[in-house]
């Protein structure tokens, strides 16, 4: 009947991050923090979860002496996001008998 929604993407902050990354080549940590209105600690934890799943890649460098984390969505992340959206559409378009 219905497919289970991907629990990794179903969390609000992770879904927001993935939604932003779908339309960007890459995004810096500070940009994602600002756009999602999240705390640095919570965002960091959620980015690590997405990276562990292979949905995003994290590049940690320095800009001057300040750490810089850049996030990119991976092909696996794009596929997972598109599947999540399709599964959600099935829920929304379901007409009970």
Description of the molecule:
By secondary structure, the protein is of the alpha+beta class. It has a single domain (7-87), classed as Arc Repressor Mutant, subunit A, CATH 1.10.10.10. It is elongated and about 55 Å long. A hairpin with a 2-residue loop joins strand 2 and strand 3. The longest helix has 18 residues, at 75-92. The mean pLDDT is 93. It has helices at residues 7-10, 12-22, 29-36, 40-52, 75-92; strands spanning 27-28, 56-63, 66-73. Strands 1-3-2 form a three-stranded antiparallel β-sheet. The chain contains five helices and three strands.
Question: Can you identify the CATH superfamily?
Answer: Winged helix-like DNA-binding domain superfamily/Winged helix DNA-binding domain
Overall spatial form: elongated
Strand-pairing-aware structural class: alpha+beta
Please, how many helices?
5
- Evaluate the radius of gyration: 15 Å
* Helix and strand sequence: HHEHHEEH
CATH level-1 class? Mainly Alpha
Outline the fold blueprint:
Elements: H1 7-10, H2 12-22, E1 27-28, H3 29-36, H4 40-52, E2 56-63, E3 66-73, H5 75-92
Antiparallel strand pairs: 1-3, 2-3
């Amino acid at each position: 009947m219905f497919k289970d929604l991907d629990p990794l993407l179903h969390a609000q902050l992770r879904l927001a991050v993935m939604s932003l990354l779908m339309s960007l080549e890459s995004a810096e940590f500070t940009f994602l923090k600002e756009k999602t209105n999240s705390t640095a600690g919570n965002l960091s934890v959620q980015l690590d979860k997405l990276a562990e799943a292979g949905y995003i890649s994290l590049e940690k460098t320095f800009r001057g002496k300040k750490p810089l984390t850049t996030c990119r969505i991976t092909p696996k992340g794009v596929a997972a996001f598109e599947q999540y959206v399709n599964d959600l559409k099935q829920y929304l378009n379901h007409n009970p008998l």
